[in-house]
Design goal:
mainly alpha, 2 domains, 3-stranded antiparallel beta sheet, two-stranded antiparallel sheet
Length: about 260
């Protein structure tokens, strides 16, 4: 994890900063000489939306997905839990979702895989500065796609790779993960850390928490919202983010019911 933090610092200080209108050349295709090489020995941090897309693609529960495909890196400097993709224990440390023909979950591949060869840096995440996020080219020596002639703007690439729906959910996640609470050197308690993990990564367990506890008896949740979050993982995740603002940071995003179920 220390190496990753050092890389973030290098990106912030040394990498050219791109905008959505900046141009670059890149292409990846089946017969390129480095095909699949970039899918080995990599650090893939999974977002909450990544996990929803992947576990639904695989038709398994979020708990099964977490157990089988992820691990939790331990770093005392972390403000909250993060989840990383577990690689195969072979010589190449290859991704579990890569086969001879390429990615086996391509339509639901994680955000970072869609963005490659682009990355996005959030200065606030690294040093707390209120600066705009910026894009940069990831330096990956094994990749030959940089030498292809296909030209894109950053915006064109993101549209082509269907990144925007991931970014929409990612923006909501950043409201939690980069909350001002953390910039004031405050720490989450163990129960709060567990709730953060449950909402953000174990969405099926969070649904159980909402519907199989006294939650809906204690909080005034509109009936149409209840219907949405009962079946729709994305809606439940959005609801979960609002719940985290309430239970972690004390924001008034939830309404408590009165004794008779009224305000």
């Amino acid at each position: 994890m220390k190496a990753i933090e050092n890389l973030k610092e290098t990106i912030l200080k040394e990498y050219p900063r791109l905008t959505k209108d900046s141009k670059f050349k890149f292409s990846c295709f089946r017969n390129i000489s480095c095909f699949n090489e970039c899918c080995s020995d990599v650090n893939i941090f999974l977002t909450p939306y990544d996990i929803i897309r992947l576990k639904n693609r695989l038709k398994i529960t979020s708990q099964e997905f977490l157990d089988r495909y992820t691990f939790l890196p331990i770093d005392e400097n972390q403000n909250h839990p993060v989840v990383m993709l577990r690689l195969n224990q072979d010589e190449k440390k290859s991704c579990q979702f890569v086969g001879p023909e390429g990615c086996t979950v391509y339509e639901d591949r994680p955000w970072s895989c869609r963005m490659f060869p682009l990355g996005i840096a959030s200065p606030k995440e690294i040093d707390g500065k209120e600066e705009e996020d910026f894009y940069f080219i990831i330096e990956e020596p094994v990749c030959k796609g940089y030498f292809e002639e296909n030209s894109w703007t950053v915006g064109e690439w993101m549209r082509d790779q269907k990144v925007e729906e991931y970014n929409e959910m990612g923006k909501l996640f950043k409201e939690i993960s980069l909350h001002d609470f953390f910039s004031k050197d405050k720490k989450l308690t163990p129960p709060q850390l567990e709730m953060f993990y449950t909402v953000c990564y174990n969405i099926d367990k969070f649904r159980e928490f909402v519907f199989e506890s006294t939650f809906l008896n204690r909080f005034d949740v509109p009936e149409d919202t209840v219907k949405k979050i009962k079946e729709d993982d994305e809606e439940l995740l959005k609801f979960g983010f609002e719940w985290l603002k309430y239970c972690l940071f004390g924001e008034k995003t939830m309404k408590i019911k009165g004794k008779n179920g009224k305000e």
